[in-house]
Structures are given as structure tokens and as C-alpha cells.
Amino acid sequence: MKRITVIGTGYVGLVTGAGLSDFGNQVICTDINEDKINKLLSGEIPIYEPGLKELIDRNVSAGRLTFSTDIPPALKKSEVVIIAVWTPMGKNGGADLSAVKSVAKMIGENLNGYKVICTKSTVPIGTGKIIREIIEKISGDSQEFDVVSNPEFLREGSAVKDFLIPNRIVIGSESERAQKVMKQVYRPLFINETPIVTTDVLSAETIKYASNAFLAVKISYINELANLCDATGADVHLVARGMGLDGRISSKFLHPGPGFGGSCFPKDTSALVHMAKKENVEMKIVNAAITSNSIQWMQITNKLDTLFKDSFEGKTISILGLTFKANTDDVRQSPATPVIEYILKQKGNVRAYDPEGMANMKKLLPGINYCESLQKAVEGADGLMIMTEWHEFRAMDLKKIADLMSGNIIVDARNILDPKELKKNGFIFENVGRPNVK
Ligand code: UGA
């Protein structure tokens, strides 16, 4: 058992803190945002993440997890400090490190004996060295500490599961002492024989970007193949299955759609290209994925144009799904945003519904009509678009939807509706890369 302070209680920090307390560690999750910490202290969870409330409640009750805005005393009590503050996209596409740097300064000011300083935030390659230098400069030579890079691989919507049952743990540190401490932090996983990859700091920092960018490339690749299938008549799902059964390729992340979004892939691909450029290395493949993704949403609006014969002025389009993927309330870089903006520009009316994302989307697009239920959103609509793969939409009764709508046009940007059922219920529809299943 280790005493741990997590700095930054966003989705990564909160899931990490709660997960580590579940492993038996004594964890204080801290943040400068009083509102967030007050909510957590009163048992409220500031984000929508399946299973997180149960995990937090269980560990708060067991006395292993607490929350505080008072960071210095928490630091002084802890042997392990986890940095999980945000690193937003800064100017020129690089990551903005100001929050990480000010946390490093605070750690330096409160160093009182050996500590492992561990970064969970996705930070540019070389940040471990910067953190070390800041802490050394402030704390002087008398204090001992080690810097570790321990990247997270948590998907929003399944972050709790990804934390408790990970594919691998990456621990980057040149110090044997720190590696030993981190193995104790993750002891239950170590006992379960979860692969633990020990590396130097630079390699661990690189693994994070390399993994996210690879997945982004894979998605863009299948999206472009889906566009090709649309043109040739092949079915991209059969193509993906035929490819994915080859263990060298794998079936994961071969689902075509309106393009990747969220707070990670867009930011991390851009940061990787930016970092490489500084080293005079051109990341042509990642760059291509960024370009391909930036226009993938237009494939979806092109389908709407085709079905409405190029004009939907004055027509009502129901948008089902606003979040960048299912099981989250996150709308950052969601492909639903440019799609809605396009419809509004063409003078169409938008009626939107999402099980969890409406409050966040209202901040970005306040002027559209948000509906309290799926039924209300589709009532009287001329067309319907599925933008997120929520179970609620997969399970829709298409006969009922046909009765509720005025028109019969559907664009399924996630390929979740059964083409046979759509046809049976009189819909004219488009999906992504499956022209021969109509
Ligand atoms: C991603 C990574 O999967 C995590 O391993 C990583 O830790 C995280 O970023 C991060 O850096 O914090 P996340 O962005 O939550 O997680 O979501 P993903 O499930 O990876 O999906 C990203 C985007 O790709 C979504 O827009 C999703 O709809 C899209 N996607 C995913 C596809 O279009 N097709 C697929 O087959 C898979």
C-alpha cells in the first residue's frame, strides 16, 4: 500500500485515483477547482463515466479515497505524486504545458523526503526532463525524488474497466527504486500477471503518442476504405472482418464512421506532428490521418445532400447523438458539431437528442432545438441522422420511428441500424461503406 496524491481531478485523475484506491492504496485526489472537489465530497460525480460512482463510493466508504483542494499538505503526506492535470492543444498544435509546469513547481516547494513524481497527463516527449529540472531547481540538491512516466490508456465510457483490467501498464523510469515503488502501487495487477512494460522516461512518453496516433491512423484508414466501398459497391463490414481476422491486423478500431473526435486523438495526433517537426522529422502518415479525418464528416453530409436531392432548406433534421462516442457526456471535437453547423448553414432546422451530451453541446451550439427524448426529436422530422452509437438508438423500434417522422430519410453515420429493417419500414437511407446491403 502506498500513500498517493493525484493532482488534477479530471476524467483521467479521478478514474486513476479511484482505481488506485481500489488496489488498496491510500489516495487523496486534489484539484484547484473548489466546485469539483465540493461535488465529490458530497458524493456527486462531476462527469458521466459508467461504473465510476460505484468505484468511488466503495473506496470513500472504505476510507481509502479522499478529496481536497489543499494540495501542499496532501503532497507532504504522500510517497507517490501523480500529475493528471490537463495539457490542452496550445498555439501551433503543440501541447500547452503550463498546468504541468506549475504543478512541478508546487511539488518542488513541498518536497519533504523521497517521492516518486509520476506523469499520467499526456505530455510531450521530453516533459519528464523538464519536470525534473523544475523540481530540482526549487527543492535544491538535498531532496530526493524520481520522475516516472506512467501513461494512461483509458477510453472514455469504459475507463473504469480499462483501469482495473488493463492490457498493459507502462512504467518509464531510469530509477530502479521508482520502478519498485510503482510496481507496489499496481500490486494487484502485478499479481494478476498483467504485462508491465518497464522503459526509460522518453520511451514511455513516446508509447502514449505512438499508441493514440496508430489508432487514429487505423480509424482513418478504415474510413477511407468505407468511402471506397461506397464508390465500388463492396461492404466495408465484410472487408473489416476479412482483414481483422489476421492477427497482425486485429479487428479492433476498424469501425468506420463520421471520423474520430474527443479530447485525445485530435489533440495527440496534432501534438505528435508538432513535436516531430521540431526534431526535423516529418510524420507523413499521421499528418495524412489528420487531413483525412478533418473531412470525413463531409462524407456524411454528402449523403444527406444526395438523399434530399441537394436541398433541405426549411426541412427538419433530427440529430440522434451529439457526443463524440457512446457512453460519455463529452462533446469535444465531436463530428456532430460540423454536421449540425452544415445543416444550419443550408437553412435546415435541427432537432437534437443525446442521452448524456445535451448540456455540454448547449454550451457550444446554444441556438438549436434540444429535445428531452428520442421520440420528441424525431416527431415530424423530414430526415434523421445517427451520429453516435448509443444503445438506445440501436434498439429503436423503426416502425414507431417511421410513424412519428413526416419524412423517410435516414443517414446512419455509425452503421448501427439494420438495413433490412430500414427497408421493411419504408426508409430511404445511407450508411457508411455498405452500398450493397440496401
Ligand atoms: C483514446 C484511446 O482509445 C485511449 O487508449 C487513450 O487513453 C485515450 O484516447 C486518451 O488518450 O486519453 P477515447 O478518446 O476515450 O480513448 O475514445 P476511443 O474509444 O479511442 O475513440 C476515439 C474516437 O475514435 C471516437 O470518436 C470514436 O467514435 C472513434 N472510433 C473508434 C471510430 O470511429 N472507429 C473505431 O473503430 C474506433
Low-confidence stretches: none
At the fourth level of CATH, the homologous superfamily of the largest domain is NAD(P)-binding Rossmann-like Domain
Distance between the termini: 57 Å
Q: Give the overall shape.
A: elongated
Can you put this structure into words, describing what you see?
- The model has no long low-confidence stretch (mean pLDDT 95).
- It is elongated, with a radius of gyration of 24 Å.
- Helix 6 links the parallel strand 5 and strand 6.
- The longest helix has 32 residues.
- The chain has three domains: 197 residues, Rossmann fold, CATH 3.40.50; 82 residues, N-(1-d-carboxylethyl)-l-norvaline Dehydrogenase, domain 2; 136 residues, NAD(P)-binding Rossmann-like Domain (Rossmann fold, 3-Layer(aba) Sandwich).
- The strands form three sheets. Strands 3-2-1-4-5-6 form a six-stranded parallel beta sheet, sandwiched between helices.
- It has 19 helices and 14 strands.
- 47% of the residues are buried.
- It binds uridine-5'-diphosphate-glucuronic acid (UGA).
- The site of uridine-5'-diphosphate-glucuronic acid has 20 residues, from helix 10.
